[in-house]
Amino acid sequence: MTDDDAEILDAIERWVDREVRPIARQFDHADEYPAALVEQMKELGLFGATIAKDYGGLGLSASTYARLVTAIATAWMAPTGIFNSHLIMAACVERFGTEQQKQHFLPRFATGELRGGLGLTEPNAGTDLQAIRTRAARGASGYRINGTKTWITNGVYGTCFAVLVKTDPEAKPAHRGMSMLLCEKGPEFSVGRKLKKLGYKSIDSAELIFDDFEVDASRLIGGEEGKGFHQAVGGLALGRINVAARGLGIARAALNDSLKYAQQRETFGKPIARHQAIQLKLADMATRVEASRLLIEQAATRYDTGERCDLEAGMAKLFASEAAVENSLEALRIFGGYSYSTDFDVERYYRDAPLMCIGEGTNEMQRIIIARQLLEKHPL
User: Fold this and answer.
1) Is residue 141's pLDDT more than 90?
2) Is the per-residue pLDDT at 361 higher than 80?
3) Would the N or C end of the chain have less CB density within 10 A of its end CB?
4) How far apart are CA 251 and CA 290, in angstroms?
5) CA 68: distance to chain centroid?
6) Separation of alpha carbons 36 and 38, rounded Å
7) How many C-beta atoms lie closer than 10 Å to residue 271's C-beta?
8) Which residue blocks in the chain are alpha helix, DSSP H?
9) Sign of CA dihedral 131, 184, 238, 286
């Protein structure tokens, strides 16, 4: 890390201790949107974390960004989703957009003036993105969009989304007829409903409805139709590194809380940390945390050097998300009956962790990606 990176991380860690950790339990239980926290995130530059400095962002490397995400997720995972989806949208514009699109959108993304995310998932299409039905029909000066997106992070309070659409529904294979459009909210582009969730509370996951919504042709990312599928999946490597870092944050939080509780709680005249059964759990939890950290660092380093990293990002996402689930469950067992009390944070870790196994591609899909890459690299 550079000195600037270290300074940014130090500022984030102090902000987490001062502003995030004290409100996490209250806002999670109330499922209340942390509006004041979002304004602070703007001031800290989090909405421009990975956007290049030329466009007003912080220009952080993926390695530093992953550390930043982990630091926040260790206190409260949910807020990291607010800027993760936003930054994947920004990365899509920065990597594939025209220079005019970069100049127009990226500085506004970096400040949080415009913020949002990706509009990919539909009621009938999640992992299988080629099955989307949202249609963008070309007109004289632009496109008319009709369709519904669901499970869209920042759906209620976000203002701009990179939306995956079918511009040629008859194309074979289907991905050749898919494009990405930058859509700012307006008439005929509305929020359907905020979705109720097991965990990942306070964050506005919602439906987006397009009813003859018109968008100018200049908002077609890259200025060429048929590139949308590759633009969408092209940003998933950074997204998977982010999800892995969020999983690491949950796994680390579960370990930290368990270490403290195990040394305070006594049974049979001694702290439970002195019982071998508890020690075995703590050892496994700590090992998962360290292994996750190293896998994330490997994936982020390859991303920073411009190398292909779908294998490494997939491994990091797979392992760290499963570590979050396993560590949260072990924390429940260490806390015993108190784990079911909302007075302790371990119940939140247990509710938040499963999302990491689903978001940015299910872990079943990660295993398939990993296996295919291995077979490509090691043919007979």
Assistant:
1) no
2) yes
3) C
4) 10
5) 13
6) 5
7) 14
8) 3-15, 21-30, 35-44, 62-75, 78-96, 99-111, 228-234, 236-264, 276-304, 310-335, 346-358, 363-377
9) negative
Catalytic residues: 360
Q: Whole-structure pTM over 0.85, yes or no?
A: yes
Burial (CB < 10 A; 0-12, 13-18, 19+), residue 212, is exposed
Spell 325-361 as b/e; 16+ CB within 10 A means b: bbbbbbbbebbeeebeeeebbbbbbbbbbbbbbbbbb
- For residue 134, pLDDT over 80 is answered with yes
Per the CB < 8 A criterion, the answer to whether 257 and 118 are in contact is no
**Residue 41 is encoded by which pair of tokens?**
């995130």
Give CA–CA dist 206/281, Å, rounded. Answer: 37
pLDDT value at position 234? Answer: 81
Instruction: Confirm if 262 and 334 have CB atoms less than 8 A apart.
Output: yes
Q: How many angstroms separate the CA atoms of 41 and 36, rounded?
A: 9
Element (H, E) at 118: strand 116-119
pLDDT, position 340: 93
Nearest CA to 29 out of 283, 224, 202 is that of: 202
Q: Exposure of 169 by Cβ count < 10 A (0-12 exposed, 13-18 middle, 19+ buried)?
A: middle
* Closest C-alpha to 9, from 84, 61, 67: 67
Length of the chain: 380
Q: What is the mean pLDDT of residues 209-226?
A: 96
Single-letter code of the amino acid located at 359 = G
Write out pLDDT tens, residues 250-270: 999 999 999 999 999 999 999
Query: Domains in the chain, start-ordered, CATH in brackets?
Result: 3-111 (1.10.540.10), 117-226 (2.40.110.10), 235-377 (1.20.140.10)
- Please state the rounded mean pLDDT for residues 275-279: 97
At residue 125, does pLDDT exceed 90? no
Task: Quote the mean pLDDT of the chain.
Answer: 95
- In the prediction, which pLDDT does 51 show? 97
Question: What mean pLDDT comes out for the span 22-32?
Answer: 97
